[in-house]
């Protein structure tokens, strides 16, 4: 939808259910580079009028969107489950995240504060204001097809920007429903929020052309570190800084002071929720050598007992989201070396490679065994690189110094966790871990709408989403000085000085 109207695409495709591959969820028409440029032109035209609407009124639009999402929570969650195979309980939580984001930002329309700053000169006042950046291109992944887009789109709309959104190719039904709820629930004028379905090369070409034409003022991107580098480089060539939320190799340290059962529960959800297809999914468990065997036994037992299968049932994990992720996951499994200790079956779940207690029909979808690999070390691909899928590495450490070094070694910096009941360990870890987010006695996954979300290193460029911090991504600071003296006053040159005695010293003896 561009400027409130559907656009013709250059090719058509089906979106299928990854847990029932013969079920078509939606038919989608993919555009090309010119489609994205046309959307950018529409958004660029609409932006001045949208920015002219008072911010508190834009806040009421965000409130309307939140209530519309709330009314359609179950319906939207069902689409997410059907299209990407996310368990329904998780999908409900994802939709709730949109509601929470709207609830937070509806009030920010009345709190886009600037400052009144004292001047160094008489009869002069200084002010600062937040101004919208302009037109924002948002490119998001499909593992959180509705929650993550809201992190960009809600604050961008609130602050007076217009949007061109390119969602993931494999979640068009969820993104179309999201777009319709936002436009109708918020009463958004045509051109304010446009959606374009396109593949990666077409998107990059359209983005480049739009930047060359001065139609795009900000890029928000969620996806892999490799693509993030390309998007960041493109933005940099146009003197822009993209908002990049990229991959992770999120460590979880378990100390001798940890509650091991709680740590197992956290590792199970962090490693295998959404079938390990989150940017915040657990990468490596770094467990103290004194409790390594005990933890591993408990972890393996919990994983073996966890229900896996049909995402409409109560399961730990469903299928891989799309065939391309299944293929990549099989490549990650090929990284397992002879020195590694694989704790369970590997590969696709089939009649010849079954999983006990599987829920549903494994032959119907892209279902894979969750895998725990013990004995990984720096230098191993499984330790060093993001493995997007249900694969968790385990290694051991001697002291906290070594644990923190291991946690930082891969060079990502998104999320992290430590399980301990020792406050000194918790604060030492938080102080020295490179991640933008850390949890104590909780999972590596999970975000709240009023906390900053984002990473460093391979995980991002330091930009943050959510909370008040994201406002700096979608607004520019403007300073204003107002001189009402009736004469030209030159800063740093015409400043009045007080008469001071430079030779004065206090004579203590005379007192």
From TrEMBL:
Its EC number is 1.2.1.3. The active site is at 245. InterPro entries: Ald_DH/histidinol_DH (IPR016161), Ald_DH_C (IPR016163), Ald_DH_CS_GLU (IPR029510), Ald_DH_N (IPR016162), Aldehyde_DH_dom (IPR015590), ALDH7A1-like (IPR044638). Keywords: NAD, Oxidoreductase. Residues 13-479 form the Aldehyde dehydrogenase domain. GO terms for molecular function: aldehyde dehydrogenase (NAD+) activity. Pfam families: Aldedh. Belongs to the aldehyde dehydrogenase family. Homotetramer. This is aldehyde dehydrogenase (NAD(+)). It comes from Microlunatus elymi. The lineage of its organism: Bacteria, Bacillati, Actinomycetota, Actinomycetes, Propionibacteriales.
């Amino acid at each position: 939808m561009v400027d409130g109207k559907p656009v013709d695409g250059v090719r058509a495709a089906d979106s299928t259910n990854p847990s029932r591959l013969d079920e078509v969820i939606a038919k989608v028409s993919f555009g090309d580079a010119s489609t994205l440029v046309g959307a950018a032109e529409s958004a660029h035209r609409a932006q001045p009028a949208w920015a002219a609407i008072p911010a508190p009124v834009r806040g009421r639009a965000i409130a309307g969107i939140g209530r519309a999402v709330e009314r359609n929570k179950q319906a939207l969650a069902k689409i997410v489950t059907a299209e990407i195979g996310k368990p329904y309980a998780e999908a409900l939580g994802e939709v709730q995240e949109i509601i929470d984001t709207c609830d937070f930002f509806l009030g920010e329309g009345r709190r886009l504060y600037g400052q009144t700053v004292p001047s160094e000169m008489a009869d002069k006042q200084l002010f600062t204001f937040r101004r919208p950046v302009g037109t924002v291109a948002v490119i998001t992944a499909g593992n959180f097809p509705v929650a993550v887009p809201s992190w960009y789109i809600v604050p961008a709309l609130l602050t007076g920007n217009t949007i061109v959104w390119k969602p993931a190719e494999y979640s068009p039904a969820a993104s179309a429903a999201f777009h319709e709820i936002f436009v109708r629930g918020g009463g958004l004028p045509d051109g304010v929020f446009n959606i374009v379905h396109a593949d990666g090369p077409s998107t990059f070409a359209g983005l480049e052309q739009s930047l060359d034409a001065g139609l795009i003022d900000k890029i928000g991107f969620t996806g892999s570190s490799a693509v993030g580098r390309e998007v960041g480089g493109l933005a940099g060539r146009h003197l822009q800084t993209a908002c990049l939320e990229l991959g992770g190799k999120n460590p979880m340290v378990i100390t001798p002071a940890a509650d091991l059962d709680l740590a197992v529960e956290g590792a199970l959800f962090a490693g295998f929720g959404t079938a390990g297809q989150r940017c915040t999914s657990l990468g490596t468990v770094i467990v103290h050598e004194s409790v390594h065997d005990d933890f591993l036994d408990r972890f393996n037992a919990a994983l073996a007992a966890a229900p896996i299968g049909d995402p409409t049932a109560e399961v730990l994990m469903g299928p891989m989201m799309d065939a391309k992720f299944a293929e990549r996951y099989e490549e990650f499994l090929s990284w397992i070396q002879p020195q590694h200790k694989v704790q369970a079956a590997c590969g696709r779940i089939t009649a010849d490679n079954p999983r006990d207690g599987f829920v549903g029909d494994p032959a119907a979808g892209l279902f894979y065994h969750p895998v725990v690999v013990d004995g990984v070390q720096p230098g191993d691909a499984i330790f060093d690189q993001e493995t997007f899928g249900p694969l968790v590495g385990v290694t051991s450490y001697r002291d906290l110094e070594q644990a923190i070094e291991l946690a930082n070694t891969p060079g990502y910096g998104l999320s992290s966790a430590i399980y301990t009941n020792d406050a000194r360990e918790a604060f030492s870890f938080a102080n020295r871990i490179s991640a933008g987010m850390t949890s104590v006695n909780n999972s590596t996954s999970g975000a709240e709408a009023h906390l900053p979300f984002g990473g460093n290193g391979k995980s991002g460029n330091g930009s943050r989403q959510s909370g008040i911090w994201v406002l700096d991504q979608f607004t520019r600071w403007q300073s204003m000085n107002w001189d009402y003296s009736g004469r030209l006053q030159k800063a740093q040159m015409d400043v009045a000085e007080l008469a001071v005695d430079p030779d004065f010293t206090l004579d203590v003896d005379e007192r």
